[in-house]
Amino acid sequence: MRDEQRAPDAGSGRAARPQAGARAVFLDRDGTLNREVTGALARAEQLELLPGAAEAVRDLRAAGWVVCVVTNQSAIARG
């Protein structure tokens, strides 16, 4: 199997370039992966992952899925 055909290494932390026809899953950030914070999530120390969230993302990546995290939080657009 050629390197570009292999599923990304879920433990590497590297973003893999998706292949044409790759399967993707889109996950909402707040309330799905992490606990919702009153107001805006502004600092990394405010982030609290929900139980099982990290393992679920790892398992999806290990199964060859491209994982995309989405949010409608306006602070993301402002940088």
Characterise this structure:
Helix content is 19%, strand content 13%. It contains 2 helices and 2 strands; from the N terminus they run βαβα. It has a two-stranded parallel sheet. α1 (53-62) links the parallel β1 and β2. It starts with 23 loop residues before the first strand and ends with a helix.
Structure characteristics:
79 residues, alpha+beta, two-stranded parallel sheet, 19% helix, globular
Give the N-terminus to C-terminus distance in angstroms: 40 Å
Low-confidence sequence ranges:
1-6
Structural class: alpha+beta
Radius of gyration from the alpha-carbon trace, in angstroms:
15 Å
Please summarize what this structure is.
With 79 residues, the protein is an alpha+beta fold. The chain is built from two helices and two strands; from the N terminus they run E-H-E-H.
Architecture blueprint of SSEs:
Layout lengths: L23 E5 L24 H10 L3 E5 L3 H5 L1
Parallel strand pairs: 1-2
